[in-house]
Design goal:
- The chain has a single domain, classed as NAD(P)-binding Rossmann-like Domain (Rossmann fold, 3-Layer(aba) Sandwich), CATH 3.40.50.720.
- Helices cover 39% and strands 14% of the residues.
- It is built from 7 helices and 7 strands, in the order αβαβαβαβαββαβα.
Amino acid sequence: MKYDRCKTLFKDDGFAKLQNAKILLLGVGGVGSFALECLYKSGITDITIVDFDSYDESNQNRQMHSELHVNEIKVDALKTHYPLLTPINQKIDREWIESFDFEDFDVILDAIDDIHAKLALAQKCYKKLISATGSAKKIDATQVRSASIWKTQGDPFASKIRRELKRRKFDRNYRCIFSAETALTKEKGSFMAVTGAFGLAMCSECVKKILRTPLKD
């Protein structure tokens, strides 16, 4: 059966937790699309995805299913591959985050690029949050790490986030996926081995977080 090996690994109670989890995934690009694939194939299907973009040819080096859906809206295209998910075609900015109700979700996955949105999200949802930092400009997937935002290293984007959070007197913890590798270029080049590793690491952290929580009634 489809999930037999997942059930063997997670045991009955653990797999039941995954199937009962409600996930919000913000951004379904090079990082988020791999997180989505991993979550769905692990038995987590109650997933709401939010993104406002459409696929173009430049996405095809790093984004799941992008070559099949050029010029199509991402969240609608992904619904055809993951029929149980809920798509929201929406630009994720600070104003949307401040107005959106995150209460019903067990875990919130941040795979967006907008620093203002990321900061607003951290301040509002840090207890449920797993956030990706910069995955571009790097080639070594073995240097992808998971740590508290305050222990991230080797990433100027993460450094800027830490600096801005301190400026706002935010001192809470949340989990981040980052790469300790030094950037190889100033241009925004990307490599699927790294962006995909970010997404898979995000899925792993999400699964671990769910397994640590009590089983819902």
